[in-house]
Amino acid sequence: MNFYSTPKMPPTMTEAFEHPAGSVAAKSAGGATHWLGKLLHIHIAPSASYEMEELQEAQCIAGRGIMGDRYYNGTGTYSPKPDVREVTLFEQEVLDALSRNDPPMQNGSIVLEPKDHRRNLTVVGVPLNHLVGRRFRVGEVVLRGGRLNFPCKYLEELLGAPVFLPLYNRSGLNCSIEIGGILRPGDQIELLDS
């Protein structure tokens, strides 16, 4: 950016509980409630298609996202489309299943590193599909689950691997940030709404 350029406006984000999926789920009881998870990895990319960079500490800003990330900056592939994507999470258990070829939807196992799924946070012991419409804490940060993420052909193209079908219904969770703060690998994750 040169001295005379106009700063880019932040992307329009939808509040997690205002998203159709989150608003319905927030009014319904149910889902897994007795679990305790952990944050394993934090990744950001400054712009669409850039390689994900691993962080040992990240500043989360309520209503915006992770400082330095493409969706915080408004430079992500889907930034022009308003949605809940201040922070995205992905389960380590899904990476483990893909490496076992479970389910067997491709010709063999697919080994992906945590940076490859292109979500911000890789977690373990956290049932993401149960967190739509729920509030939960990651270290000192409070997130609201907005909607489940979907795999896309764009990710297949970037990775050069047939991940679309194996990631269907287990491609992560899009969240908004209710209370910002610092995230670090090793942070405990716990449900706030049961």
Overall description:
It is a single chain. Residues 1-5 have low confidence and may be disordered. The protein is globular, with a radius of gyration of 16 Å. It has helices at 20-26, 70-73, 92-99, 153-159; strands spanning 37-44, 53-55, 58-61, 65-66, 87-91, 121-124, 135-138, 141-148, 173-179, 181-183, 188-191. The protein has a seven-stranded mixed β-barrel. Strands 4-3-10 form a three-stranded antiparallel β-sheet, with no helix packed on it. The chain has a single domain, classed as PK beta-barrel domain-like (M1 Pyruvate Kinase, Domain 3), CATH 2.40.33.20. It contains four helices and eleven strands. By secondary structure, the chain is α+β, with helices and mostly antiparallel strands. 13% of the residues lie in helices and 27% in strands. β7 (135-138) and β8 (141-148) form a beta hairpin.
Mean pLDDT: 87
Structural class category: alpha+beta
Number of domains: 1
> Which percent range fits the helix content?
10-25%
CATH topology term: M1 Pyruvate Kinase, Domain 3
Topology record:
Elements: H1 20-26, E1 37-44, E2 53-55, E3 58-61, E4 65-66, H2 70-73, E5 87-91, H3 92-99, E6 121-124, E7 135-138, E8 141-148, H4 153-159, E9 173-179, E10 181-183, E11 188-191
Parallel strand pairs: 5-6
Antiparallel strand pairs: 1-2, 1-6, 1-11, 3-4, 3-10, 5-9, 7-8, 7-11, 8-9
